[in-house]
């Protein structure tokens, strides 16, 4: 245990020191994207690991990004206030969708279809209200003329790297807290048999709703941070079914039941997207989603525990 703690501490120190020792802007940019998306994928995995397959998390991410940006541009509300309001909006939306589903036992592929509709509705609302959101052309938060701290608009990559690293670490802490809590045991019982779980005294609706709201709020935070970092958002980049499927792909490929699995998935998705962008330019638009779909089917069939999950499983078997 001591060696494990020393290794964890050394890794944490190396990650914190990285932007001060290696200042290549493009590589730091890629690392920031990996960390932000890792947090989003971890958020999805909190639900997915218990059989709650959501295809609507693109909607929650869109709410987090657009509510923060719209409050800043139209009302001058600082992101330090706008982000909590965006998280509140995402949480209320998750409750509005989740409660009827869980109350009336809408499960499995029916639940996935409901969340798919949610993602589509958010996308359509953003597109339809183009006078305010910019529609399909995208939306750019106004550059601050005052404090960059108050506007959460930092120019240097080092600051954003540290912010993204902190949020990524927060995601891991939440994952481990859930993994070690009674919520995990309750959700595992519910995923096996809802009737038996209810008979054992578990409030099925409340437990499902808690994990759903937590996942939605975390995803909205990822969307808000992505907006503040990129200083440009569009329906295709932070909302819709494509974003939701990207989350599913990354979590499954990396390892749905392992804390660092979504991070491995983020490394694969971001590097794949960057490789296609650099190698093929606009000719490769949409290729990443096609590749995600093909690889997702392959991993579900041949490697259901994902890359990291399978490696850890083989390591455990090798000990015996």
Could you please describe the fold and organization of this structure?
This protein is an all-alpha fold and 320 residues long. Helices cover 79% and strands 0% of the residues. The radius of gyration is 20 Å and the shape is globular. 40% of the residues are buried. The mean pLDDT is 91.
Fraction of residues in helix: over 70%
Structural class: mainly alpha
Strand content: under 5%
Output mean pLDDT: 91
Tally of contiguous helical segments: 16
Give me the count of strands: 0
SSE order, one letter for each helix or strand: HHHHHHHHHHHHHHHH
Strand count, sense and closure of the main sheet? none
Distance from N terminus to C terminus (CA atoms, Å) equals 20 Å
Question: What topology does this entry show?
Answer:
Layout: H1 2-21, H2 25-48, H3 57-75, H4 79-103, H5 108-128, H6 130-133, H7 148-151, H8 157-179, H9 182-192, H10 194-199, H11 204-230, H12 235-238, H13 241-254, H14 261-280, H15 287-302, H16 306-319
Helix pairs in contact: 1-8, 2-8, 2-11, 2-13, 2-14, 3-4, 3-5, 3-11, 4-11, 9-11, 13-14, 13-15, 13-16
Salient structural properties:
mainly alpha, 16 helices, 0% strand
């Amino acid at each position: 245990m001591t060696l494990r703690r020393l290794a964890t501490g050394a890794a944490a120190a190396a990650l914190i020191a990285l932007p001060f020792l290696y200042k290549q802007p493009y590589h730091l940019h890629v690392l920031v994207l990996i960390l932000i998306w890792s947090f989003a994928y971890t958020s999805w995995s909190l639900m997915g690991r218990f059989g709650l397959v959501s295809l609507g998390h693109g909607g929650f991410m869109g709410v987090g990004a657009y509510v923060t940006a719209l409050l800043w541009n139209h009302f001058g509300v600082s992101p330090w206030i706008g982000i909590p309001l965006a998280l509140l909006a995402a949480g209320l939306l998750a409750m509005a969708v989740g409660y009827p589903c869980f109350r009336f036992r809408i499960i499995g592929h029916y639940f996935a279809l409901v969340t798919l509709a949610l993602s589509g509705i958010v996308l359509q609302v953003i597109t339809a209200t183009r006078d305010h959101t910019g529609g399909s052309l995208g939306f750019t938060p106004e550059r601050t003329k005052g404090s960059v701290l108050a506007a959460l608009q930092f120019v240097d990559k080092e600051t954003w790297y540290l912010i993204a690293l902190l949020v990524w670490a927060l995601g891991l802490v939440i994952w481990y807290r859930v993994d070690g809590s009674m919520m995990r045991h309750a959700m595992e019982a519910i995923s096996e048999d809802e009737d038996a779980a209810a008979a054992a005294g578990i409030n099925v609706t409340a437990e499902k709703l808690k994990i759903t709201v937590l996942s939605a709020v975390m995803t909205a935070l990822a969307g808000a941070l992505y907006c503040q970092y990129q200083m440009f958002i569009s329906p295709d980049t932070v909302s819709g079914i494509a974003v939701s499927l990207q989350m599913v792909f990354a979590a499954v490929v990396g390892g749905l039941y392992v804390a660092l699995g979504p991070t491995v998935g983020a490394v694969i998705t971001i590097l794949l997207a960057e490789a296609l962008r650099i190698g093929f330019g606009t000719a490769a638009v949409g290729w990443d989603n096609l590749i995600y779909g093909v690889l997702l089917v392959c991993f579900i069939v041949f490697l259901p525990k994902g890359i990291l999950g399978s490696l850890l499983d083989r390591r455990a078997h090798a000990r015996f």
